[in-house]
Design a protein that fits this description.
heterodimer, A: mainly alpha, globular, B: five-stranded antiparallel sheet, 21 helices, 48% helix, disordered C terminus
């Protein structure tokens, strides 16, 4: 390992593939601790697991297209590429749309995670106090930088995975395979359509495109990392959805606001160990901190990229105030869930379709850069 | 009372007036400073613009050596003028800086008297005598009583000079000093010096200087000899299995201990002096063909850039050279064990020894080496790993046990088995304080017992520990101030914190646990998670001499089986990748030759594979 360059602000940061996979997995996967499994059941009923598989497959295809765009402009982020391909005015409009989406999605997640903590652990706490806690931690972590956060994600991911697996396997006595029938749920057409829309859930893989300048590997590796991350997270979603369906029948599965928490509540290890869900709170809140901090950092880095700023750190206090305000904007949890549901249905337009269109335009206009 | 007197009285009531000085002693320096300060400020204002234009020194060890000789192989030689200027070696408070040794003995004597404030200063001894040659030559020796060895001075300097009689030697030339150096004086290290700036630091360090009439150079004989502690047992890094030697306060003993452990010609010992007034010796030890030259250059650069009056302890030196002074975790490994230091040097790290200190600094440090103990390697694999596992658990216990207790007691009562929660509730029934107050009270009391135990003399210290831990705890429970279960929590936490092998690391975790407890009191388990998240983010952002603190897992680098757990010693084939050493391989793929031999045999080898 060669240690190079080191000036706190100016250094050229380069992340390895392990860290890149960890970032993508946390960015895509954190929502599984919120209402995402319930949303899957709503879309696919007993065939929710098929919805996951189809969604993962579609997003992989989109990712391949996006990587081909990134390959045409080595060392450039997808936001910079947009400016090159679409020109400064249209590119800026598109980039601002993406930035708005990034801010809105992460701040809504901030609200949802805060509300989840109220539901699961601190029923008496005011929502603003939890949003504030998250906000302060996000600010600190984002200030420490992408290097620190990506390493943190890489180190903590095995522990979070172990926690998830512990919950899933602890429920083994309650696995009821009959709950998976009928296999095709609402019918093949609905499953296919909803499966396609579910590619939004994996669309957050686009974060790799935004962070592309910070990676030390080539585009071929980036392609593999995207596919690898989608596959791993897809397996995670699949496992949780399957267990969720097997443990809770569909009508009950449609009711819970925090399905993973509900799963951990269902664990029974004998009379001595009771209410173990509090322990598992440690795992999913950790992922929440990671995801939200990454969300803030990605927004800051994207702003730096779009507005061609030299540093991102001075933006953080302003951004965290925006996050805080937007998180508290929905009247109640139900509104926030509705926003998240819309995001899960339609965000693929911004995260996957838009880069694909960019690729098409780049090919048509023969825009390309050599070197990097 | 006249009107004037009345006015004065009223004025005195409302206006503060400095009372007239009653002390005999008045600190004139302070008064002087006041008058100088405005003038200095004016001067500094003028200089400010120039200073701002200067770019800060890059921290990189891979940076270009061109600017200011920053990353040259020998910073001491790279920019002697600039560095001397920075360290104040050429300051006017050293009148001898430009002086040369005079051929007139009386001139030299006067200069020595002036430099050392004789006869007021009683530590300096001037011994005048006559060298017996064809024509007796006057001379005098100067040395500092207490740090010079009298026996060596008498036997190796004075006796041969005062009894020698070599009529063939012509006195009165520079060759006389050369001749005395080569043929008369028995000293093992004798040098000729012409400049006072070379002579005085040596005399200050126990050497004897010899001025000879009509010779334009002085002889400096190595006569160091002071009372010192002999090599003893380690105080803070004790092991059951392994050597029981520890460093002491003598630099040369310490370098000798390391040289005894590493019998290799590539083991380099370089000296740098730090401190404007004290000129303390710092020794860097590393393996020349193993350690990364950039790392060595960076260590030298940081140490030689220190500009201060006095660095008396490795703890102070550590604060001068570490990357993140405000982070709770240490970024330099301090050890008092020669065997451990030797093993780090063999890995390619750099050891920093400071004169007068029994602790050696090892750089770069990483989190995992700070959690290891030398005994982990000396014990067999299963035992070594068992000890490490317990230590990892101890780290988590020391960090989050009080926070866990507070979380459960305040927010998550439902997760405790009913019988246990009833027991806790019964214990807390008589306690008037909220849980967090109770916990902070007991944790603070524990820290106080620990601190008091360190400060008071040894015999009382043990008694204090027992009094504090047993009687105070028992009495607090009986008085209904704290609950019995909290005593268990605090004792367990304290015990766990002492299981952390590194002293600084133990301090760090003990301090951080208070933050965790406060977070737990405010937000329960999510608060603990927030603390863990920030702590891990902070650690992953840290670097020690350019090496990320969480290597080899954050960032992931190639590493042998020695991170949290360790593999068999014969499987540790390569040095850590993050050190980027010149020789990567520590041992061949098959280091146990007997296995190889057996395997090659056509018959009988298979059974042992």
């Amino acid at each position: 390992m060669e240690v190079v360059a080191i000036n706190r602000q100016d250094r050229i940061l380069k992340l390895g593939y392990s860290e890149a996979v960890a970032i993508a997995m946390v960015y895509i996967g954190a929502k599984v601790f919120l209402g995402y499994p319930r949303f899957l059941v709503e879309m696919g009923l007993n065939a929710a697991w098929l919805v996951v598989i189809i969604g993962a497959g579609v997003s992989m295809l989109f990712w391949l297209v996006v990587v081909s765009l990134l390959s045409r402009f080595p060392g450039k982020s997808i936001l910079s590429i947009s400016m090159i391909v679409l020109g400064p005015v249209l590119g800026l409009i598109v980039n601002l749309t993406v930035l708005f989406y990034l801010i809105a999605s992460s701040s809504n997640l901030l609200r949802l995670f805060s509300d989840s903590i109220i539901i699961t652990a601190l029923p008496e706490a005011p929502i603003s106090s939890l949003v504030l806690l998250f906000g302060v931690i996000m600010l600190l972590a984002a200030y420490l930088g992408l290097e620190a956060l990506s390493r943190n994600a890489y180190i903590s991911l095995p522990f979070v995975t172990a926690g998830v697996l512990a919950v899933l396997f602890s429920l083994y006595p309650f696995w009821e395979t009959k709950n998976l029938l009928p296999l095709l749920g609402p019918g093949p057409l609905d499953v296919m359509i909803n499966g396609f829309l579910n590619c939004s859930a994996f669309g957050e893989v686009m974060v790799l495109g935004i962070l592309a300048p910070y990676f030390s590997f080539d585009k071929k590796m980036l392609r593999n990392i995207g596919i690898f991350s989608i596959t791993l997270v897809g397996f995670g979603f699949l496992a949780i959805t399957l267990v969720y369906l097997m443990v809770l029948p569909v009508p009950a599965a449609l009711e819970h606001l925090a399905p993973f928490y509900q799963l951990s509540r269902s664990i029974f290890w004998g009379r001595y160990y009771q209410r173990l869900e509090s322990v598992f709170i440690l795992f999913w809140t950790y992922t929440a901190f990671l995801r939200l901090s990454l969300g803030l950092l990605v927004v800051a880095l994207a702003s730096k990229d779009i507005f061609r700023l030299p540093y991102y750190r001075p933006l953080l206090p302003a951004l965290i105030i925006i996050f805080y305000s937007l998180a508290l904007t929905p009247d109640n949890l139900v509104t926030a869930i509705a926003i998240e549901k819309d995001r899960l249905l339609y965000s693929w337009v911004i995260t996957l379709l838009l880069p694909a269109v960019l690729t098409l335009i780049a090919v048509l206009r023969k825009k390309e850069e050599k070197g990097g | 009372m006249t009107v004037n007197q009345l006015k004065q009285f009223i004025t005195r009531l409302f206006i503060f007036k400095e009372p007239p000085p009653k002390e005999d002693f008045i600190l004139h320096g302070a008064v002087g400073i006041r008058s100088i300060v405005p003038q200095r400020r004016e001067e500094e204002k003028g200089k400010k613009k120039k200073r701002l234009k200067k770019k800060p020194l890059p921290i990189a060890r891979a940076s270009s050596p061109a600017k200011g000789g920053a990353a040259t192989d020998d910073p001491g030689e790279a920019d002697p003028e600039g560095q001397d200027g920075q360290n104040g070696k050429n300051r006017p408070d050293r009148p001898y800086t430009d002086m040369l040794v005079s051929p007139e003995l009386e001139v030299n004597k006067e200069r020595i008297k002036q430099i050392y404030s004789l006869p007021k200063n009683k530590d300096i001894i001037l011994r005048e005598f006559v060298i017996q040659l064809d024509r007796p030559v006057k001379a005098f020796a100067a040395y500092i009583e207490g740090i010079s060895d009298r026996g060596t001075i008498n036997e190796n300097i004075l006796r041969p000079l005062m009894s020698v009689c070599k009529p063939e030697m012509q006195s009165g030339s520079v060759n006389l000093a050369e001749y005395l150096k080569d043929s008369v004086i028995y000293g093992n290290q004798v040098d000729l010096h012409e400049k006072y700036k070379d002579i005085i630091p040596l005399v200050n360090y126990g050497c004897t200087v010899l001025f000879i009439d009509s010779a334009p150079a002085a002889l400096v004989v190595e006569t160091k000899g002071w009372d010192h502690r002999s090599i003893g047992k380690p105080e803070t890094e004790q092991v059951i299995r392994g050597p029981h030697e520890a460093f002491n306060e003598t630099l040369r003993s310490n370098t000798g201990l390391l040289r005894k452990a590493i019998r290799n010609t590539d083991l380099i010992t370089e000296f740098i002096k730090i401190g404007t007034r004290n000129q303390t010796d710092v020794a860097l030890m590393y393996l020349e063909n193993v350690a990364n030259p950039k790392l060595v250059a960076e260590v030298k650069r940081r140490i030689s850039s220190i500009s201060t009056d006095y660095v008396g302890e490795t703890g102070i030196l550590e604060q001068f050279i570490e990357d993140h002074p405000l982070m709770p975790l240490p970024q330099v490994l301090a050890t008092e064990r020669p065997d451990r230091t030797a093993s780090f040097i063999m890995d390619g790290k750099v050891a920093i020894l400071l004169d007068g200190n029994p602790n050696v600094l090892i750089v770069p440090a990483d989190l995992f080496s700070l959690l290891h103990s030398p005994e982990d390697y000396y014990l067999r694999l299963p035992y070594g790993n068992l000890v490490r596992l317990m230590r990892v658990i101890a780290v988590f216990i020391s960090l989050i046990t009080p926070a866990f207790y507070v979380s459960i007691a305040i927010f998550h009562q439902e997760m405790i088995p009913t019988d246990l929660i009833l027991a806790i509730a019964a214990g807390r029934e008589t306690v008037p304080f909220p849980t967090i107050v109770e916990v902070f009270f007991m944790e603070f009391a524990f820290e106080m017992i620990r601190e008091a135990g360190v400060r008071v003399p040894g015999v009382i210290g043990n008694t204090l520990g027992i009094v504090g831990a047993l009687i105070l705890g028992q009495a607090a429970v009986q008085a209904g101030i704290v609950s019995p279960i909290l005593i268990i929590v605090v004792a367990l936490t304290g015990l766990a914190s002492f299981a952390i092998p590194n002293y600084s690391m133990s301090f760090a975790f003990r301090g951080v646990r208070f933050v965790f407890t406060a977070l737990a009191a405010a937000f329960g388990f999510p608060g603990i998670t927030a603390g863990l998240f920030v702590l891990l983010s902070g650690i992953t952002a840290m670097k020690s001499f350019g090496v990320p603190f969480m290597v080899p897992i954050g960032p992931r680098t190639r590493s042998g089986p020695d991170i949290v757990m360790r593999g068999p010693v014969w499987s540790m084939e390569e040095r850590p990748d993050f050190l980027d050493t010149q020789e990567r391989r520590r041992q061949p793929q098959i280091s146990r030759g007997w296995v190889k031999k057996k395997a090659q045999e056509p018959n009988g080898g298979g059974r042992n594979q």
